[in-house]
Amino acid sequence: MVIVMQPGACEEHVEGAIQAVKDFGFQAHPIYGVNLTVIAVVGDKTQEHLEAFELLPGVDHVARIDKPYKLAARRPRVTETTQIDVSSAVFGGPKIAVIAGPCAVESEDGLREVAEGVRAGGASMLRGGAYKPRTSPYSFQGMREAGLALLKMASQRTGLPFVTEVMDTRNVELVARYADMLQIGARNMQNFSLLSEAGQTGKPVFLKRGMSSTIEDLLMAAEYIMSAGNEKIILCERGIRTFETATRNTLDLSAVPVLKRNTHLPVVVDPSHGTGHAWAVPPMAKAAVAAGADGLMVEVHQAPERAVSDGPQSLTIQEFATFMAELAPVAEAVGRTMA
Q1: Which residues of the chain register pLDDT less than 50?
Q2: What is the pTM of this model?
Q3: Which terminus, N or C, of the chain has the lesser number of Cβ atoms within 10 Å?
Q4: What are residue 278's phi and psi, to 5 degrees?
Q5: Three-class SS of residue 69?
C-alpha cells in the first residue's frame, strides 16, 4: 500500500507516519515529490492496518497497490514522474536529458574529442564503457580501471557527469568510486546480486531492459534495487530480441507509454542499440520523445569506421550536433525542451 500525505504536509506529520509504519513492523519508503510526499509501505498484512494509517495526522488517503513491484509502481492519483538528479543532469523533469558518448573508452585523445563534441552539441551526460560485455571472449573487453580514470578526467574537463556499466559485484565499489551513475546492462538486468549491490551504493542506477525481458521483468529488477534502499533509478528501453533481422534489435517504443502509466520512474530510450544503424537513430529518437521519453542515450564516436565496438550504430560528432538541433522542435511539440 501507499500512504499519500496531504499537499504541504509538515515534516513532523511525515516523520510521524513513517514511525507508525515501522511500529507496526513494516518497511517505510518515503518518496518526496515536488507537491506530494508518498510513503510506500512494504510487508505482509499491511491491508489490515489501512484504516489506522488513514487516521494519522497529515494523511490525505491510503491506497492499495496490487502490482508485485510495490516501490516502482506509480502512486494512485500521483501523475508526476520522480525527478532524478545526477549532478547537473536531470531526468524526469520538463527537459529531455541526452546521454552521449562512445560505446567503449578506447584512448584519452579519442574520449576527450567526443566528450568536448557532445558537450558542445548539448548533451547532459557522458557515457562510455570501461568494462565491456562481449559475446566473444576474444573481443575487446574494455580498459577497465584505466578507462574509468579517463572518463573521470573527461568529466572534470567538460563538466558533464558520466555513466558507465558495472558488470560484476566485485567491481561495484570501484566503479561507484569514479562514476556519477552506474549502468546495469541488458545482459545483467536479472543479475539479482548485482542489482542489490548497486542499490546499496546509493548512486543513481541506469537500468537497461534485458533483450528478452518483459516490462514487468524490468520493473521487478528495479524493485530489487529499490528494496536495497536506493530509489534513484532510471529505466532504459534499448530494444528486445525478435525474429526481425533488419535491425539489431526491435526498439519497443510502446514500452514508453506503458512504463509511464505503471511507474513513477524516469524512462530513457537507447535508439543506438535498439536499431544498430546510425541512420535509424535520429528518427527513432524523435519518435521516442514524441512517445513521452524523459531522455535518450546515443552512441557517438569521433571516427565510427575505426571504432573497436558498435561503430555502425554510432553518430559522428557533427551528426550528433545536427541530431540535437532536429530534436528541439519535436520536444517543443510535446511540451518539453532539450536540456
Answers
A1: none
A2: 0.86
A3: C
A4: -60, -35
A5: coil
